[in-house]
Amino acid sequence: xxxxxxxxxxxxxxxxxxxxxxxxxxxxxxxxxxxxxxxxxxxxxxxxxxxxxxxxxxxxxxxxxxxxxxxxxxxxxxxxxxxxxxxxxxxxxxxxxxxxxxxxxxxxxxxxxxxxxxxxxxxxxxxxxxxxxxxxxxxxxxxxxxxxxxxxxxxxxxxxxxxxxxxxxxxxxxxxxxxxxxxxxxxxxxxxxxxxxxxxxxxxxxxxxxxxxxxxxxxxxxxxxx
Length: 226
Description:
- This protein is α/β, with parallel strands linked by helices.
- The protein folds into two domains: about 1-120, 3-Layer(aba) Sandwich (Rossmann fold); about 145-215, Winged helix-like DNA-binding domain superfamily/Winged helix DNA-binding domain (Arc Repressor Mutant, subunit A, Orthogonal Bundle).
- The chain is about 55% helix and about 15% strand.
- The protein has a six-stranded parallel sheet with strand order 2-1-3-4-5-6, sandwiched between helices.
- Pfam families: GerE, Response_reg.
- This is DNA-binding response regulator.
């Protein structure tokens, strides 16, 4: 059973997320929070598999709550819910170790896919979020879209052929176990490849590596099904 905490200051959003997740018999919502402080407290109390956090909340933001959760309850993975116009916040959350990013107005199925992915140790980026992050980086002086794609490809070129294959699957939101089944290897081998990929690319987490995979054009428009 995937145990989930939902945190959003809008009751209707919490109710909507809960209703979507209730359609999956393998997911159980164990707690709800209306602000960042409460979210951190309830994660410590309930130890859910996944915390779904609004990126902006009263008290402490979802970004700060995510960082605190990752530091104190590392067994809980964090998904950030975002709206259009919050690209700076997405980048901050990415640096804070969030494992997934979803658009509030996205398809309900994407929420379930994202929760399942991060619960299984994967990084999940809504394709719309990934596109916005890359465009935002370019618009804020981090290079043109073409320049960022070229730079990402140059860095990825240092990976082995198998590591590039693993990175493409990682960018598509697959977990280590799912990647292992695709490549017909043991999961420990995939874990070793992921660790090497993060070190070679100079990034701190799977979500940041996934962004680079998107930048390099390695990920199809819609993530493949496990």
